[in-house]
Amino acid sequence: xxxxxxxxxxxxxxxxxxxxxxxxxxxxxxxxxxxxxxxxxxxxxxxxxxxxxxxxxxxxxxxxxxxxxxxxxxxxxxxxxxxxxxxxxxxxxxxxxxxxxxxxxxxxxxxxxxxxxxxxxxxxxxxxxxxxxxxxxxxxxxxxxxxxxxxxxxxxxxxxxxxxxxxxxxxxxxxxxxxxxxxxxxxxxxxxxxxxxxxxxxxxxxxxxxxxxxxxxxxxxxxxxxxxxxxxxxxxxxxxxxxxxxxxxxxxxxxxxxxxxxxxxxxxxxxxxxxxxxxxxxxxxxxxxxxxxxxxxxxxxxxxxxxxxxxxxxxxx
Length: 317
Hints:
Elements: H1 2-20, H2 26-54, H3 63-76, H4 85-100, E1 114-116, E2 121-123, H5 133-150, H6 155-167, H7 172-183, H8 189-213, H9 223-252, H10 258-285, H11 290-302, H12 307-316
Antiparallel strand pairs: 1-2
Helix pairs in contact: 1-2, 3-5, 5-6, 6-7, 6-8, 7-8, 9-10, 9-11, 11-12
């Protein structure tokens, strides 16, 4: 597109000059200039993209630059041989991320093996682990998460991330969640059509997988029901925390209101039962959703003082 615009401006400029003066062989000048203009624009674009790749995520200021950066990263990790300049840049980015990343669950810090959807097996750590294509896929996933947190109102980033999760990692559940989040970000008509098309592709993939395995596709969940239950569970947990604070505020008073404490204790018990009910319903749909495991695990440890159950849930996270 840049080359087309550049050539259009080059032709327009020459047409304007032809109106002012007559020069023989002007068409030859135009034809010679077109490849030169295209080459200059191509190299300028190449330099721009390279600078964007080497720019830290915290310095990416626009959604368009974020999408371009992720598209280039996805292109770089395909058919990686670590033998040319592109791959050397990728190694540098990986090592830089390892130094700067603060997320303990990032694949560069998590000791767990990574699942390879192509071979349907887990890869082991070795001397080349950090440059393994499977690891790089998980690293790109981590980068998407950082950008989505930064551009919280970007429906296009959610769509792009959902496409990556589905096409590269075959993570159907997470892809559907990202598409559901994209719908909440007031997408344009074109983006709405893209969301609909992606959901249709996921549905067709599920049908094909179900026919091959002759069994229910376990990773598929009722996304709307799941999100509603998860939000209700979080709301119930927040309510329990609020009531607990109010209860212990009464305990710290010199003259506590025993009647109010009794009412608060009853409310805490009722809301806790609701949180447990929502959690059990979530587990029936998908017992391994990371955010739900972390939220309920921390609730069990910090509010319910059940370290055994809470730690087990966080370990699964």
